[in-house]
Design brief:
The chain is an all-alpha fold. It is built from 14 helices and two strands, in the order αααααααααααββααα. The protein is globular, with a radius of gyration of 20 Å. Its main location: membrane.
């Protein structure tokens, strides 16, 4: 296989990993006002992702770095054309990360309320805008002959892209709520299961509409149809698993749902990386956007050595912090 095509799928795999892992982080952050009844509940919810949220977030750094090195033309067009949306994502991630560390530095309820709000909005904004960005990439945007984006920020807020944003928002929210039920005990666990069941119904409807729209735009992509079907079946199965109290199975099925949905988008995009909606001749493809074979070769050997180490470390981290978080442990740690 040509290395440029290999790296297209590696970049796709990195973004799949990011959306699956940081996706439930976003969902946990967004769930704060819906699941918590007091500050102890909020601390329990935040502690479910406390040991792993920053590790999950590094996936987008790796994905962005690989995108820059493997497809510099794609990176340049994407970050110059979508700079405002991506800047908003970056600022939201910064505010969210700071809030995790600062909310417990003050003793007043008002102090904690401010940073809790930052966590909620800092989780919701990326969850929405990542979907908007990827939907625009798959649908295509206007590009000039130099592969520069010639639309504006509000042109990105078209119906298909907004539906994509709402889809990722709901998928991540439900994924995160299921994770809370998996990692907590008692009444909070039951509230999370109930909320996941309710949000899951809305998520099924919205995600189905988005995937059907994607298929209608790319009817010749058999891979997109298959991946979309897998995502739909996994999402429905996750809803039933959650209703049955099988949180571990529900969480795994939600991960499959998000992975299959993102894969469907990359399959719809292939072999382009940034299709031009105004003139197909201006589109960026895997071949005209990739780096030199030498660069891709060096990257391949580097990934072969270090990627297994990163995966092993992340798996070990999740194993170490696998236990549930309870109100009793959080209250005990506060004294």
């Amino acid at each position: 296989m040509d290395l440029s095509y290999l790296w297209f799928w590696i970049v796709g795999a990195l973004f799949i990993g990011y959306f699956v892992l940081d996706g439930f982080d976003f969902g946990v952050g967004m769930s704060l006002p819906f699941l918590s009844k007091d500050d102890t509940d909020r601390r329990v919810i935040i502690n479910t992702i406390g040991p792993v949220w920053d590790l999950n977030e590094t996936w987008v750094i790796v994905a962005g770095a690989c995108l820059f090195a493997a497809f510099p033309e794609w990176y340049a067009t994407l970050f110059s054309g979508f700079y405002l949306a991506l800047l908003l994502i970056l600022l939201a991630l910064i505010v969210r990360g700071v809030s995790f560390e600062y909310r417990h530095q003050g003793s007043s309820d008002r102090w904690r309320a401010w940073f809790d709000g930052f966590i909620v909005y800092g989780s919701a904004v990326p969850a929405l805008l990542w979907g908007v960005a990827f939907a625009n990439i798959v649908q295509g945007v206007p590009l000039d002959e130099g592969h520069n984006y010639i639309g504006g920020f509000f042109a990105l807020l078209n119906p298909y892209a907004l539906l994509g944003g709402v889809t990722t928002l709901l998928l991540f929210f439900t994924h995160g709520v299921v994770f809370v039920s998996l990692k907590t005990t008692g009444e909070l666990r039951e509230r999370a299961r109930t909320l996941a069941a309710r949000s899951g119904v809305v998520t099924v409807v919205v995600a189905a509409a988005f995937l059907v729209w994607t298929i209608l735009q790319h009817p010749d992509s058999i891979g997109t149809i298959i991946a979309s079907a897998v995502a739909a079946v996994a999402l429905i199965a996750a809803w039933f698993a959650n209703r049955a109290g099988r949180e571990g199975r529900a969480f795994a099925l939600m991960a499959v749902t998000i992975a299959a949905a993102v894969l469907a988008l990359f399959l719809a995009l292939f072999p382009d990386v940034m299709p031009a909606s105004n003139d197909p001749a201006n589109s960026l493809t895997i071949e005209n956007a990739s780096s030199t074979p030498y660069t891709l070769g060096v990257m391949s050997w580097t990934a072969l050595v270090f990627l297994p180490l990163v995966l092993a470390y992340q798996a070990w981290t999740y194993w170490v912090f696998r236990k549930r978080v309870s109100r009793a442990t959080v209250e005990a740690a506060a004294h």
